[in-house]
Design brief:
With 714 residues, the chain is an alpha/beta fold. It has 3 domains: 84 residues, no CATH class; 290 residues, Glycogen Phosphorylase B (Rossmann fold, 3-Layer(aba) Sandwich), CATH 3.40.50; 279 residues, Rossmann fold. The chain contains 30 helices and 21 strands. A hairpin with a 2-residue loop joins strand 12 and strand 13.
Length: 714
């Protein structure tokens, strides 16, 4: 950061401070400032101000410092920034003034904050990032803990045969909005954890997320052996032994990092079971101070909150007892318990035998647990009833708080302007109040439709420019140019399907009756096209097969260029897709979608969902804001289920969706369609934003833990 300060003129010197606080990423005025500084460079760096300031010429910076319009905008943004950072008058401080000295420690394996910091893979990470942003907006005393991942998650490459290849790029940390944490002597701070008999060290990186810090552990330090330096290199890479070592470092190392920083949370929130070892470290601390094991468990449980995200049994980490014994041998002595008692804390019968299950550990040692939608809460209570054998499924203490999306991050600038104009300047502060969204009735149909068309054109332009850049750089062969969106028609009804390619999400369901789909896509007067994007886990061969199948169909000339597969789906691309398509398709096998959030991002931008009644859509669908695929029936036979659901999709497209989209009046406006867009915004934005979600977490879980855990982990 200091080298940038030397480069930037003093008159605009604080622009570097702004670049290193991701607050800019969800604040239109700040984004506008960087855009004005050098628009071509803003686009070239994919909206990364740190990289921009490194690459921009000194002459350009001097020019900005002499530009009265830029200076006026700069001063306005910095005043807004300073006022925000003062943290006065926020919801948390107004609602819970007596809890201002408490802290919430939020642990997650991944954080999706911005594409310039690629330490996320998908929905879990984006949810964590949105959670952190909203915690800042509401003034929560919040600190995040995760991993740096110098190689991040893989970049997806699709060669001409369409079989996904995983490519890893070393992140240039100097171009990312992260800074090392230094001690009083100016040295990088370190924490260490004993892994199978030897200490493994990690440095701590600091990310500023608005008002709050996020601390990231990184084992790539000189003190470590080469194989330990690689421990935090990649997200979701490696075998079970790598995973347990990572999870020990996150849980136990994360607690030690906060202690080293002088931060002592009153609430420990585990986002998924990856960080559940933190509960053991909390117990160890208490026992070392003279508490009995049972007393320590009572204290830790009061302060621990656990959120589970998957209704798929295979999605919960479980380790063989031999691995747990290898890495925790001697640790149970520090807890004052036997090996058998220790293993029972996470003991669970898996398909392959008894194992140590991280979700079971988290459930056993958390005072409060929740799923991420109403349906997922119900599924989780049934799924984990065995942890409470004396209780019925309905009595299992797993509640639900439905996920949300950070509205400021995901709403398009053009839609934001409509909300400013018709909802009033304070709409963002009141976004979870359903009453203000009734004012959308005042937005003229023509204006709403024109904004949508502008976003659709922006999407098409983004896809074409992306292909052109890759073509020029030699990254695409002619086949890939054709499959990557260049043949898409800006006028055609455009369906978007973008998510992780896991088999239960049934990405190829719409191709079940190819002839029937062909008739829909190639209708001369009412054409339809579908854009696919998403990655499969590197070890998920069936998921890769789904990608290849769609990619090969996209090459098929009989589908007339109406299918596109866009490789290397990330946050940057997600913004264009969730703002620019006409319909958002989601067809998981119910009830395997815990919540889903991509459809929420589409909904707040006025893009109707066409979805199975699973996850959030089971709560969000009201009959007028999109379409439900089939009904809530669940067939034991997957083939029958797929046939039933695919037929429902075709029928909805043929009889409702396509006719409604192309039904235009004399002004060329599809009035009925616009009404569904309006209802999508009106009904979904207040209910499925993180504003509502974080308030629920605070009121229902965090405050209870703060008040119950007056004796802190110390």
């Amino acid at each position: 950061m200091s080298h940038l300060n030397d480069k930037v003129p003093e008159k605009i010197g604080r622009i570097t401070e702004l670049a290193y606080n991701l607050w800019w990423s969800w604040t239109p005025e700040a984004r506008g400032l960087f855009r004005r500084l050098d628009y071509p460079l803003w686009r070239k760096t994919l909206h990364n101000p740190v990289q921009m300031l490194q690459e921009i010429s000194p002459a350009k910076l001097q020019e900005a410092a002499q530009d009265s319009i830029f200076i006026r905008q700069y001063n306005k943004v910095m005043m807004l920034f300073d006022e925000t950072m003062k943290n006065r008058g926020t919801w948390f401080h107004q609602t819970y003034p007596e809890l201002g000295d408490k802290t919430i420690g939020y642990f997650s394996f991944e954080f999706g904050l911005h594409s310039s910091l690629p330490i996320y893979s998908g929905g879990l990470g984006i949810l964590s990032g949105d959670h952190a942003k909203e915690a800042s907006d509401l003034g929560l005393p919040f600190v995040g803990v995760g991993f740096m991942y110098p190689q991040g998650y893989f970049r997806q490459r699709l060669p001409s045969h369409g079989w996904q290849e995983a490519v890893y790029h070393q992140l240039d940390i100097s171009q990312a909005p992260v800074l090392p944490m230094l001690d009083g002597n100016g040295h990088e701070m370190r924490v260490s954890v004993n892994l199978a008999g030897r200490p493994v060290h990690a440095r701590i990186w600091h990310v500023r997320v608005g008002r709050n810090p996020l601390f990231l552990l990184d084992t790539d330090v000189d003190e470590n052996e080469p194989w330990d330096r690689e421990l935090s290199a990649r997200l979701y890479a490696g075998d079970s032994e790598t995973r347990i070592r990572q999870e020990i470092m996150l849980g136990i190392g994360g607690v030690r990092a906060l202690r080293a920083l002088g931060i002592n949370p009153s609430v420990w929130h585990m986002n998924e079971g990856h960080s559940a070892f933190l509960t053991l470290e909390g117990i160890r601390e208490q026992v070392s101070q003279g508490k009995s094991f049972e007393e320590a468990v009572t204290i830790v449980k009061k302060q621990s909150v656990f959120t589970t995200h998957t209704p798929v049994p295979a999605g919960h980490d479980a380790f063989g007892f031999h691995l747990v014994e290898q890495y925790f041998n001697g640790y149970w002595d520090e807890l004052g318990i036997s090996r058998e008692r220790f293993l029972s804390l996470g003991g669970h019968e898996e398909e392959w035998g008894m194992a140590f299950n991280m979700t079971v550990l988290a459930l056993n040692l958390s005072g409060q647990s929740n799923g991420v939608s109403e349906l997922h809460g119900k599924v989780s209570r049934e799924m984990w009833q065995e942890v409470w054998p004396s209780k019925t499924a309905d009595e299992v203490p797993i509640s639900s708080i439905t996920n949300g999306v950070h509205v400021s991050t995901w709403v398009a600038g053009e839609v934001h302007n409509i909300f400013d104009k018709y909802l009033g300047p304070s709409w963002l502060d009141e976004q979870d109040n359903p009453a203000i969204w009734q004012r959308l009735a005042e937005v003229p149909d023509g204006e709403m439709w024109e904004v949508h068309l502008a976003l659709k054109r922006k999407l098409m332009s983004f896809l074409r420019e992306r292909v052109r850049r890759r073509w020029v750089s030699g990254g695409n062969d002619p086949t890939q140019v054709l499959t990557s969106g260049t043949l898409l028609d800006p006028e055609a009804l455009t369906i978007g399907f973008a998510r992780r390619f896991a088999t239960y999400k049934r990405a190829t369901l719409i191709f079940r009756d190819l002839q029937r789909l062909q008739n829909i896509l190639l209708d001369t007067h009412r054409p339809v096209q579908i854009i696919f994007a998403g990655k499969s886990h590197p070890a998920d061969e069936p998921g890769k097969s789904l990608i290849q199948h769609i990619y090969n169909l996209a090459k098929h000339n009989q589908l007339g260029g109406r299918i596109a597969f866009i490789e290397d789906y990330d946050m940057h691309m997600a913004r264009y897709l969730t703002q620019g398509v006409d319909v958002w398709l989601n067809n998981p096998r119910r009830p395997r979608e815990a919540s889903g959030t991509s459809g929420m991002k589409a909904a707040i931008n006025g893009i109707p969902n066409l979805s199975i009644l699973d996850g959030w859509w089971a709560e969000g669908y009201n009959g007028a804001n999109g379409w439900a695929i089939g009904d809530e029936r669940e067939f034991d036979n997957h083939d029958i289920q797929d046939e039933f659901d695919a037929n429902a999709i075709y029928q909805l497209l043929e009889e409702e969706i396509v006719p409604l989209y192309y039904d235009r009046d004399r002004d060329g406006i599809p009035r009925g369609w616009v009404e569904i867009m309006r209802e999508s915004m009106r009904s979904c934005t207040p209910m499925f934003g993180t504003r509502r979600m974080i308030k629920e977490y605070t009121t229902n879980l965090y405050v209870k833990a703060m008040l119950a855990g007056e004796t802190e982990l110390a």
